[in-house]
Specification:
The chain is mainly α and about 500 residues long. It has 23 helices and no strands. The chain has one domain: Hydantoin permease. Helix 5 (about 120-145) crosses helix 7, helix 15 crosses helix 16 (about 360-375) and helix 20 packs antiparallel against helix 23. The two termini are about 35 Å apart.
Length: about 500
């Protein structure tokens, strides 16, 4: 009876093999399937990867942002957990394809979007990742600037007027210097490839958990346990709740589409599925709760609305003290552990996918790090509303992409891939479609985005007036895009004159 509860994909064997005659324009060694003999990610490694991803400053502040829109602490944590439980489903399903076939996200996307059309979802995912890389590098840079403040190594720096005009007000020379130092540290890790990322996550995961517990213990000891968690002035309105839920889903909707970049190294389906289930929803909710406890403690200690930014909190303390130094070092560690895995692998693989002959993972990773500088992350982190708009905004595009790929792999492809066709540009190939693009996928992507697009344009200031219905659709953009994109792809594929490889 128990076997009836186990989905078919959970027992899928590893089918990864080298393509028989790959076109050199379609992949180098970084893009080829990873065979079972080279797999190194077990259940602990997958869980450790997620612990390293989750424990970060933006995650720490996530529940606090829910509180700022009127939620109580229990409502905020419930929203965080529910959003992560929802996104875990496509995460594990998409991950199963990576484990079975050993291919990265851009190669898997060739099956649904076409061997050339894959550049569209890869570019969208890559740009979002570059933005996140910039955000986490900015946070880590502030921690480094605070960490070095007692030595006065950075405080004497002045920013050239031309550079000050570019970065805008509110950014000091020492913060920009810390940002540059943090960027260089991450680059040094990335040049050693995916295996160095795995080792870093393995070592950092237990350290990050211990530092989180230490931070909560500090908050409780300083207040004598008198921490009053926010109960909320009133239940949040349905639009506010849905926007908050969408933001929490969108927070990891990025990884939900490019998780094959990591699960291609998993030793089994059980390892990737169980590891992700252990490492995501509960850890995310627990860490957000830790953030709420510490922020609530700062209300008691300092008054006002508290200090939600842990770097700002630590900067108010004696930065020469050993405990504060250790805490700031932990903030730096969280930024690195999140960035090197979540925000560089996807855009780096996207670049390799564009031109495998001239791009390798290491060089592509460094280029993506540079793009993160151009996203001006200090503007994205200016306030909670701007950050919330960032989360909801990119989910307009990620929802349809995820749905299209899942409908294609589980519904139309039947969990089967033609490995040779994935690495071929021959006309008539299974994934060549029309000139290398799948019209059905492109149409479905547009249909999935259109309802939320007016709200997106309004949020970035390109549209002034907006009907309330578009505000409502935008607040749930990931859900709207996921449902419409998946449905449109299924219908369009069955109606198109182009034969789908598995719809004879």
């Amino acid at each position: 009876m128990a076997h009836l509860l186990v989905p078919g994909w959970f027992s899928d064997p590893i089918c990864a093999r080298a393509p028989s005659a790959p076109d050199k324009r379609m992949g180098n060694v970084d893009m080829l399937p990873v065979p079972a003999s080279l797999r190194t990610f077990n259940t602990y490694d997958m869980a450790a990867l997620w612990v390293g991803l989750v424990i970060s400053v933006p995650s720490y502040q996530l529940a606090g942002m829910m509180v700022q829109i009127g939620m109580g602490w229990a409502q905020a944590l419930g929203t965080v957990f529910l959003g992560n439980a929802i996104v875990l489903v496509p995460m594990v399903l998409m991950g199963s394809a990576g484990t079975k076939w050993g291919v990265p996200f851009p190669v898997l996307a060739r099956a649904s979007f076409g061997v050339r059309g894959t550049h569209v979802p890869s570019a969208i995912r890559g740009l979002v990742a570059c933005g996140w890389f910039g955000i986490n590098t900015w946070i880590g840079g502030k921690a480094i600037a605070t960490l070095l403040r007692p030595s006065q190594l950075l405080t004497s720096l002045t920013m050239p007027s031309a550079l000050a005009a570019i970065v805008g007000p509110g950014v000091s020379a020492d913060q920009l210097a810390g940002f540059s130092i943090f960027w260089a540290v991450q680059a040094a890790i990335l040049v050693n490839g995916i295996e160095s990322i795995k080792r870093f996550e393995e070592l950092s995961a237990p350290v990050l958990v211990l530092m989180t517990l230490a931070l909560v213990a500090w908050a409780l000891s300083q207040t004598g346990g008198q921490v009053a968690l926010p109960v909320g002035s009133a239940p949040p309105s349905m639009p506010h709740f849905l926007q908050a839920l969408t933001a929490n889903v969108a927070y990891w909707a990025t990884l939900a589409i490019n998780i094959p970049d990591f699960t291609r190294y998993a030793v089994s389906q059980k390892s990737q599925a169980v590891g992700q289930a252990v490492g995501l929803p509960l850890v995310q909710a627990a860490f957000s709760f830790a953030g709420l406890v510490v922020t609530s403690a700062t209300v008691v200690l300092y008054g006002g609305s508290g200090i939600a930014d842990p770097v700002a909190l630590l900067s108010t303390l004696d930065s020469s003290a050993f405990g504060v130094t250790l805490a700031l070092a932990a903030v730096v560690l969280t930024g690195i552990s999140t960035n090197v895995a979540a925000n560089v692998v996807a855009p780096a693989n996207a670049l390799v996918n564009v031109d495998p002959e001239n791009f390798r993972f290491r060089e592509s990773a460094l280029l993506c790090c540079s793009l993160g500088l151009l996203m001006q992350p200090w503007r994205l982190m200016a306030d909670s509303s701007t950050f919330m708009d960032w989360l909801v905004g990119y989910s307009v595009f990620l929802g349809p992409i995820g749905a299209i790929m899942l409908v294609d792999y589980f519904g139309l492809q039947g969990r089967h891939l033609d490995v040779d066709a994935l690495y071929s540009l021959e006309q008539g190939g299974a994934y060549y479609y029309a000139g290398g693009y799948n019209p059905s996928a492109m149409l479905a992507l547009v249909i999935g985005c259109v309802p939320s697009l007016p709200g997106f344009l309004h949020s970035v200031g390109l549209l002034s007036a907006l009907h309330p219905i578009f505000h409502a659709l935008y607040s749930v953009s990931w859900f709207v895009g996921f449902v419409l994109g998946g449905a449109a792809y299924c219908v369009a594929t069955r109606m198109t004159l182009l034969d789908h490889p598995h719809l004879d």
